[in-house]
Amino acid sequence: MWDRIKSNVLPHIGKRPVSDIPASAFRDVAKRIEDRAPTIARQMLQCCSQIMRYAVAHDMAERNPVSDLQTSDVLKPHKSKNVARVDAKEVPALMHAIVYYGGTESTRLALRLLAMTFVRTSELIEATWDELDLVNARWNIPAERMKMSTPHIVPLSRQAVETFKRLKVITYGGNFVFPGRAGQTKPMSRATMLVALGSMGFGGKMTGHGFRGLASTAIKNSYGQYRELGARTRAMLLATAARRWGMDPQSLRTQAGQVIGPRGKKLGYGELADEAMKMPVPQQVVLKDAKDFRIIGHATPRHATPRHGTARCACQVQR
């Protein structure tokens, strides 16, 4: 982020005393950036506000002029776009292209793991070996690396375990599972997989994050009991937290990857998952053809997946 501040903000107001910069100066900087990068323009306004807030707190300025600016008043409305992803009918061609990708092996294996685990691109490329328990086919992502700041467990399929074992061989040690080209101290660049997808003919049609969208859509369309499964998972997590706290499950609620209790008590799904998986299945939630499924993992209570793919979900099922 500091690199963006140096290249976008400091050339215009960096030499001015922090106490003498008016709101209009920050406005002009943001609008200048907006023409080429609307998202960065919003980020820079936020960063400038944080800097000025710090200046006020430490008597370097009397007030924060950025607080007078509403993003909606300064910049054009932001139009969100769905992450680019191929249609389900194009997935076989995509997977074929990944298998026969002619670039580096680590990039090919990274794309393969995105297709098998549905994690975010940053969660994959910044993975470290100490997070992986290949003996128990489990990937433990710490809270500080998760978007919702809660620990996360990704159950690994046999194919995913084999892929990680191959990576162990070709990365020649180091902490990162996907070290960058410059050495072992930094992970692979986020752009690496985008470039690879482009070279396969999927540029603008598929991204690393697109695998998550594909998984979500396929799961929702394929499993008629999606809502019941989500309710079942939620009931198990609430019951686990209630037993741990000695409370009535009815007094608890779920929000943003956590179980919330009275007086500010909170537990992340990751902290409850192992215990929840051992609890009796709540009788009030019935899953059709339940004999065909078994619970094998968890994360967020929104997705389930068939056996040939491993999802990062609160109640993962296996047929």
Report on the structure:
- This protein is an alpha+beta fold.
- It contains 13 helices and ten strands.
- The strands form four sheets. It has a three-stranded antiparallel beta sheet with strand order 1-2-3, covered by helices on one side. Strands 6-7-8 form a three-stranded antiparallel beta sheet.
- It is globular and about 60 Å long.
- The chain starts with a helix and ends with a strand.
Q: Can you list the strand order of the major beta sheet? A: 1-2-3
Listing every helix as H and every strand as E from the N terminus to the C terminus, the arrangement reads HHHHHHHHEEEHEEHHHEEEHEE
Distance between the termini: 44 Å
Helix/strand/pairing category: alpha+beta
Number of helices: 13
Radius of gyration: 23 Å
The averaged pLDDT comes out at: 78
Shape: globular
List the SSEs and their pairings.
Layout: H1 2-8, H2 10-13, H3 23-34, H4 38-57, H5 71-74, H6 91-99, H7 105-117, H8 121-125, E1 132-133, E2 138-141, E3 152-155, H9 158-170, E4 179-180, E5 183-187, H10 191-202, H11 210-222, H12 226-245, E6 253-255, E7 258-260, E8 266-268, H13 269-277, E9 294-299, E10 313-318
Antiparallel strand pairs: 1-2, 2-3, 4-5, 6-7, 7-8, 9-10
Helix pairs in contact: 3-4, 7-9, 12-13
Task: Identify the notable features of this structure and list them briefly.
alpha+beta, single chain, 319 residues, 10 strands, 13 helices, 3-stranded antiparallel beta sheet
